[in-house]
Amino acid sequence: MRARWGRIAAWAVTAGALGWLFWKTPVTEVLAALKQATPWTIPAVLAAVILIYIADSFAIWKTFGWFLAKLPFRDVVLVRGATYLLAAINYSVGQGAIVYFVHRARGVPVMRGVATVLLIMGTNLLVLLMLVTVGLGLGGARPAGLLPVVGIAWAGLGVYIGVVLAKPRFLVSRPVFDVLLSAGLGGHLKAMLVRLPHITALMLYQMVALRSFGVALPLGTALAALPVVMFIGVLPISVQGLGTTQAALVLFCAPFVPAGAHDPRAVILGASLAAQAVSLVFQIVTGSLCLRTRTARGLGDAAKAANTPAT
To answer: Is 207 within 8 Å of 217 (Cβ atoms)?
Structure first.
């Protein structure tokens, strides 16, 4: 029941965000902006999406190999592709599919798989924090409230480092914290290093989409703003980040739309929706194909079972 209400809330947030955006920006303006996109928009965005897929699979492959179990890269690519479709239906099902596959393939305890996924999610946030900090240092966009949030994040990181170094006994005894604490600072740094190409590809995806609509972000602004947009987009408060991602991009990027173009909000909204549409089509096609392979066959049913609470 709680999961159902969570999905309803996510759809409500998505509808509300898109409704607000289109209330502020007429659909006709967005359609006019779409017509002005360069001819290479779709192939360029698609190339960036494919790069994201490969870089993400590589990071998972290396991180799992270090902290969970060694797997063939081909298997990781297929399973990651399959989870695209599963996550589009339900995010937790997508994550459960990855954990279940490793459990099925290597007999690794499910809880250790969950702990490794937590490590991956944590290193994602650490890389985003580093990039935002560099961007702010280069004079990137500084909307109200960003600096305090970054400061609080760094303070939290300091506490986390202290916990990793101290390894408190009451946390060490809990399996869900096993990988996080046993990885140490060196393990976290390795996981961050292999995650960097994936985050870079995600930023490139947004920059290519914006550039195809005539919007060129300064490097400092891109580093400071886009990681924040990515973080907002992955929060489980909307469906696939739809609506919340567009709102964040309008906030950060509208000032950089060239003068004399269409309504800046329409340009940013059109670029973001077009890019997300290309990404969604790729994920549906890739997920459907990967789920048909022997490696990922049965993954959907197994992941749903793994995410169903025991009665």
So the answer is: yes
Assigned domain for 262 exists: yes
Q: Residue 307: which residues within 8 A CB-CB, separation 6 or more? A: 90, 92, 93, 96
Asked if residue 84 has pLDDT above 80, the reply is yes
- Answer yes or no: is 270 within a domain: yes
User: Structural domain of residue 202, as residue ranges?
Assistant: 11-298
AA letter at 107: G
Question: What predicted TM-score, i.e. pTM, was given to this entire model?
Answer: 0.89
**Distance between CA atoms of residues 311 and 307, nearest Å:** 12
Q: Is residue 304 part of a domain?
A: no
| Whole-angstrom distance, CA of residue 21 vs CA of residue 23 | 5
Which of 32-41, 116-125, 133-142, 251-260 is predicted with the least confidence, judged by mean pLDDT? 133-142
Q: How many domains does the chain have?
A: 1
Rounded (10°) angle between helices 146-166 and 110-137: 140
292: burial class by Cβ within 10 Å (0-12, 13-18, 19+)? exposed
